[in-house]
Write a structure and sequence with these properties.
Largest sheet of chain B: 6 strands, mixed
Oligomer: heterodimer
CATH topology of one domain in chain B: Rossmann fold
Structural class of chain A: mainly alpha
Shape of chain A: flat
Structural class of chain B: alpha/beta
Strand order of the largest sheet of chain A: 1-3-2
Number of strands of chain A: 3
Largest sheet of chain A: 3 strands, antiparallel
Strand order of the largest sheet of chain B: 6-7-8-3-9-10
Helix content of chain A: 55-70%
Helix content of chain B: 25-40%
Radius of gyration of chain A: 31 Å
Radius of gyration of chain B: 19 Å
CATH topology of the largest domain in chain A: MetI-like fold
Largest interface: A-B, 20 and 32 residues
Strand content of chain A: 5-15%
Strand content of chain B: 15-25%
Number of strands of chain B: 10
Order of helices and strands of chain A: HHHEEEHHHHHHHH
CATH architecture of one domain in chain B: 3-Layer(aba) Sandwich
Number of helices of chain B: 10
Shape of chain B: globular
CATH class of one domain in chain B: Alpha Beta
């Protein structure tokens, strides 16, 4: 009896990959998308975008979307780079000792008003001395961006410090018992479940406006991610070295340090870099709820309709994200 | 030194890995355990470092009974050389060898990789003994060849001055020429350090060349126990080809084949 000849007489069938079941699934998916699409006002989005495009090409006379975009674009441009401060508002101003690159200008403002005696329109001319810093606002935004980066850095550090012990307890092969394992797993899930913006709202109430609330919120949320990634890596690490160390009675902590950590370190670095990257992007917006960084500036300027300032901020954020993306990609490829 | 008394091991699924083995290995002996795959060699070895517990009978190390309580203490006296080397691949040779002494080092020293001077000196001496050079110290283990890795594994095993060394198929993943070198080294090291060795192998010629004594297990039974000279080709034939061709009747056939050689343990 040869094994190979056993199935010689078997009937072979090779059907088409689709059947009626797939058709039903497709119809159901279509209905579902149609319902949610109408709730999301997708048709209106499509028609208004089409109108906007038509306006750009010259087919339409007007379009709500295009007008809105045009108005914002007009107020964003030119970007605000310089900063002007009234000299009278600067305490102890010394015209002989001007800050670097700045100069004093005299601004003439004419305010028209009605003279109640002559019933004539008159103009009062006011002269104000202002200190002009040509790169003042840009520097201000860059400093805020630096603060944002620092927030991201400290958030990531906090996440690493929080997640390493959590990960050890949340790895099924190193958890001291079932209770600790479940507790740390659920803590990690909880951290991940609370969005930064929400926890930052509460942390701002606790710590006041400023970067403390920001980096705490970032740290807690990303500890949820890192904890999960680290724990899974510990579980999947090659058992051989761990068995060798356990068989000489090295104990759990030393086994983790000498048998697991060297194996998972490159992965850990990659995860941590990704989290840093993500935290930088999150840190730019987290200030919107008052948690420090460039977001606070953005929100303030947006509320005051200073769109030229907003433009500068957005440009800086955009450039920073691009530069850091390049940087972290290069760093990662070198480490892997 | 090592005593197995009527040891039995039955796994939860009902397989009998070890059936009633009684064995005594005196101090300093290099005892080779032969047998086909699945014969119970690994289980026998694992009982000595507490990775496996006999379901019946008792195992003694010196005069101490190996039981649940003594496992942590016991493990400091029993070192293991593994088939897959089980070194930490991305760590340096030096740290891999030093990690063999981890139970002796305090936690904070271990965390900072600050090993005491005498342990560092010992690691260097052992690496020298196994035939590596100072250039290897800071190389990553994953950059070494298989034979060199096993040499590192042997150096690590001797870091704690073990009374017993378990070598579970130490050359199974190495080519024959390198295997001889490794076994020679293992033999010399155990002689110099007066270590009792229990080494499982599946090549009878290597067993003959390096063992002080050879035992063979098949289907959980001790089927041969004697000196290398007593392990004749007939016995080997019965041990291996019998197992392959006649399946379950082997032990009977083997007992018949090697009846005259059966020594009393």
């Amino acid at each position: 009896m040869n094994n190979l000849s056993v199935n010689r007489d078997a009937k072979w069938h090779l059907n088409q990959p689709y059947n009626a079941r797939h058709l039903v699934i497709a119809i159901l998916a279509f209905i579902l998308l149609a319902v949610t699409g109408s709730r999301m006002e997708v048709p209106r989005m499509v028609s208004e975008t089409a109108q906007g495009l038509g306006y750009v090409v010259g087919l339409n006379e007007e379009s709500a979307v295009a007008t809105g975009v045009k108005r914002i674009a007009a107020s964003i441009w030119p970007l605000r780079i310089s900063e002007e401060i009234e000299v009278s508002r600067i305490e102890g101003f010394d015209p002989n000792k001007l800050p670097w690159l700045s100069h004093v200008e005299v601004i003439e403002t004419r305010t028209p008003h009605l003279n109640t005696d002559t019933l004539q329109l008159e103009e009062t001319i006011e002269h104000k001395e202002v200190l002009v810093k040509p790169l003042g606002y840009l520097m201000h935004v860059l400093l805020k961006m630096l603060e944002t980066l620092e927030m991201a850095l400290w958030g990531t550090l906090l996440a690493v410090v929080l997640s390493i012990p959590l990960a050890c307890f949340a790895a099924s092969n190193y958890a001291p018992n079932r209770f600790v394992y479940n507790l740390s797993r659920s803590t990690i899930s909880l951290f991940r479940a609370i969005p930064e913006l929400v926890s930052a709202l509460f942390l701002v109430l606790a710590f006041g406006f400023g970067p403390i609330a920001g980096f705490l919120a970032l740290g807690i949320h990303s500890a949820g991610f890192l904890g999960k990634f680290y724990a899974e890596d510990i579980e999947n690490a090659d058992r051989g070295p761990q068995e060798a160390l356990q068989s000489i009675g090295a104990g759990q902590v030393k086994t983790l340090w000498y048998g697991v950590l060297p194996q998972v370190l490159p992965q850990y670095i990659a995860y941590t870099l990704y989290i840093l990257d993500r935290n930088i992007r999150m840190a730019t917006v987290i200030g919107i709820v008052g948690a420090g960084g460039i977001g606070l500036e953005l929100k303030g300027r947006f509320d005051m309709f200073n769109f030229d300032h907003v433009g500068t901020i957005l440009l800086i954020i955009f450039l920073t994200v691009i530069v850091l993306d390049q940087f972290s990609a290069r760093l990662r490829s070198r480490l892997m | 030194m090592l005593r197995f008394e009527n040891v039995q091991k039955r796994f939860p699924d009902g397989t009998e890995a070890i059936r009633n083995i009684t064995l005594h290995v005196p101090q300093g002996q290099f005892c080779v355990v032969l047998g086909p795959s699945g014969a119970g060699k690994s289980t026998l070895l694992r009982m000595l470092n507490g990775l496996s517990r006999p379901t019946q009978g008792s195992v003694y190390l010196g005069n101490e009974l190996i039981s649940d309580q003594s496992v942590q203490q016991l493990r400091k006296k029993v070192a293991t050389v593994h088939q897959q080397f089980n070194l930490t691949p991305r760590m340096s040779v030096a740290l891999n060898v030093l990690s063999g002494a981890l139970p002796q080092v305090s936690h904070w020293r271990a965390a900072l990789c600050l090993f005491p001077a005498e342990l560092r000196a010992k690691a260097c001496r052992l690496l020298d003994e196994v035939g590596l050079t100072p250039e290897h110290l800071n190389r990553r283990v994953s950059e070494l060849s298989g034979g060199q890795q096993q040499r590192v594994g042997i150096a690590r095993a001797f870091m704690m001055d073990p009374a017993v060394l378990l070598a579970d198929e130490p050359v199974a993943s190495l080519d024959p020429r390198i295997s001889r070198g490794i076994l020679e080294l293992l033999h010399r090291q155990s002689r110099n350090h007066n270590t009792t060795v229990l080494c499982s192998l599946h090549q009878p010629d290597l067993a003959r060349a390096f063992g002080d004594r050879i035992i063979a297990v098949n289907q959980g039974r001790l089927v041969f126990d004697g000196t290398p000279d007593q392990l004749t080709d007939t016995v080997c034939e019965a041990l291996y080809h019998g197992a392959l061709n006649r399946g379950h009747d082997t032990s009977a056939a083997l007992s018949a084949a090697c009846e005259p050689e059966l020594a009393v343990a």
